[in-house]
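Re: Re: token formats

Sure, here are both.
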Amino acid sequence: MKRSDKIKAIVFDVGGVLSLGKNSRWDGKEFVPSGVHEDIANKLKISLDQYIDSIDTNYVLAIEGKISEEKVLNIFSKNLKISKEKLTKFYINSYRKHFTQNKQLFKQVFKLKKLGYKVAVLSDQWYLSKRALMPDKIYNKFNFVIVSCDVKMRKPNQKIYKLIIEKLNLNPSEILFLDNQIWNIIPAKKLGIKTILFKENKSLFKNKIWRSLFI
């Protein structure tokens, strides 16, 4: 691919792309994720099953922004028998323990911005993962940031991809989207967005489409 193919914007996922799980790995087919929820269960000295039952559908609703931060923390606090303040601290610390900013990729992201590309974020997060993994000092540098809990929809709902297309004010074919999950890549492709399935930095930096951006 050459620069003449007119990619004008690059959109990045956060978890597994811009923020890497310290203990997660690509097993050849999919990512084996870091253990934030296991960590919280251990801190609370309960089984993982008991913990999952305690957060259940409310966690999903929080990712979709269909329940407020205050309400979801009230529910979690009651079910898990721990104060909201302490639980919040547990979550923030655990996300920061299990994830690290992908500094190598960030360097290239902001190099692309200097080259004239728009750079954006499209990520599924709930309130506390967003707070822990997406510091303003870094993410304010992007042209657009769309997070599921803020816009009340999540991937792979096509509406969230249409929203980023609208925000960028570009044709889908002028956008490149990076995500580490194939089921999030598929709806983007269907809309005509160019895509790269992110596995790790080494393979991305060798990717022909990615390399062509710097020509």
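Second one below.
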Amino acid sequence: MSRTPKIIPRIQGSFRDILTNIADEQKPSFQSEGARPFIKWAGGKRSIVAELAAWMPKQYGTYREPFLGGGALFFHVQPPKAYLSDINLHLMLTYKAVRDDVNRLISILKTHERLHDKAYFYRARKRLSLEDDEVKVAALLIYLNKTCYNGLFRVNKSGQFNVPIGRYKDVSIFDEEVLRNDSKVLQGMILAQLPFFQVPVVMEDFYYLDPPYHEKFSGYDGSRFGEEEHKKLAAFCRELDKAKAYFMLSNSDTSFVRSLYKGFRIEQISAARSVSCKADGRVKENELVIRNYQ
């Protein structure tokens, strides 16, 4: 596995701005065995995953996803070989626990579910940055993700998770069957915590790139993904193209993004997005799918 930098994510941007761009959580039908994302994630691709899968190359080497998030496309496609990575340390520890120790993870989640109330939530929130047991970190992240406001991941300048508790009538913290199926799909897959530019460039491998969107999600997970980072990502994509690797990238439909990827295949797609903290505030927004292959 590639060298892993020990980066604790920090957040930029206002909470209100982030909430206006949380992804729609409608779930399309997924592939065999009920594998699907086990957490919510801003900018998730559940509503358009079938279209993205149809646009993938017919043949490729290893599936590589450097902005893993909820992993909707990976769980839909279930490739035989994958290199999954994200800069978010807590997130990648959670994937590792699902892959390597799902029984213990489920046992801890049952305790969180049984003890859940407002006071327990805020104690758990403090523990996330203090816990050194990787499986307990994973259980805390899943618990907080399913009980916090809109499933947002946000930390303060000290690296402490600080999203308030959500207002849910019925809280479903985890689905045991989904976790077990996801664990099966993750077996043999490489997991790494690192920035996108440290992901190996390999000829004929497929790269799905789903960064924090330009002018929408930048900074929602503490990655400080601004215009300079988008320029670096575009340069990385040109490096992939030069190496004869395949890439597909999702991003906002802005003139800045279009200019960065001029010369590649650019297509517009309509995706459901939430524009408020209420379910009835969802609208269709245009975004881009950019590829270097037909």
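Residues 218 and 226 are 6 Å apart (CA to CA). Residues 15-291 form a domain with the Rossmann fold fold (CATH 3.40.50.150).
- S.
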